[in-house]
Design a protein that fits this description.
Elements lengths: L5 H23 L4 H12 L25 E8 L5 E6 L4 H7 L23 E4 L9 H4 L3 E2 L5 H4 L7 H14 L16 H7 L3 E2 L2
Parallel strand pairs: 1-3, 4-5
Antiparallel strand pairs: 1-2
């Protein structure tokens, strides 16, 4: 009768444990992560389940809003709080009046174009009722690009009826001229024409 050595028995037993462990580890790879996590919590006696991937909060995108460019306008005359106001670029005269506290009871509202687009460094004067208005531009013989009609524009060198119509169309579309140099943005008016009329025009 052949006698089996105890050492051989121990080796066989150890190999069976190793093979059994490998088999179990291979099975664990098929477990659902969420179910395994919940089972782990239950084994610990906890009442809270692990959040699923669907329940995790999504990161919200960050939105950055660039600050609008500011302009400085001097509002004076018949307003409640005369002084300097800061406004976003592209603001109109009525917004400057509102920033200055609104019109006073003596303001001649109809004498001012409250829809005019303001430019940086501009002075907005609100006259009083009955106040005689002096047009400095007319006194100096200048043509105001923001108020002149077709006939007035045609008094400028190189500006005919067709070109005057283009100026009026541009003024209406863009809410007026902010600077005399802007007239070169009108189709057909080049730098050479501007140099001839620059000393005869104004936007104030």
């Amino acid at each position: 009768m052949r006698i089996i050595q105890p050492k051989f028995i121990l080796v066989c037993f150890w190999m069976s444990l190793v093979l059994s462990g490998c088999s179990r580890s291979g099975e664990i790879l098929y477990f659902d992560r969420e179910e395994a996590g919940n089972e782990y919590v239950r084994e610990l006696g906890g009442d809270v389940e692990l959040p699923s991937r669907k329940e995790l909060p999504e990161e919200e995108p960050e939105f950055r809003q660039e600050a609008l460019r500011q302009i400085c306008v001097h509002v004076c005359g018949q307003v409640c709080r005369p002084g300097i106001v800061m406004l976003p670029e592209g603001s109109r005269a009525w917004e400057a009046v509102e920033a200055a506290g609104g019109l006073s009871g003596e303001a001649h509202e109809a004498a001012v174009n409250l829809a005019a687009v303001l430019r940086d460094g501009e002075k907005l004067y609100i006259p009083a009722l009955g106040e005689e208005l002096a047009d400095d531009a007319e006194n100096r013989g200048l043509v105001n690009l923001n108020t002149a009609d077709s006939a007035g524009l045609q008094t400028l060198p190189g500006i005919g009826e067709s070109r005057a119509a283009d100026i009026l169309s541009y003024r209406e579309k863009h809410g007026g001229f902010r600077a005399v140099e802007e007239i070169m943005q009108v189709p057909g008016i080049k730098e050479s024409t501007y140099e001839k009329i620059r000393d005869q025009i104004t936007v104030n």
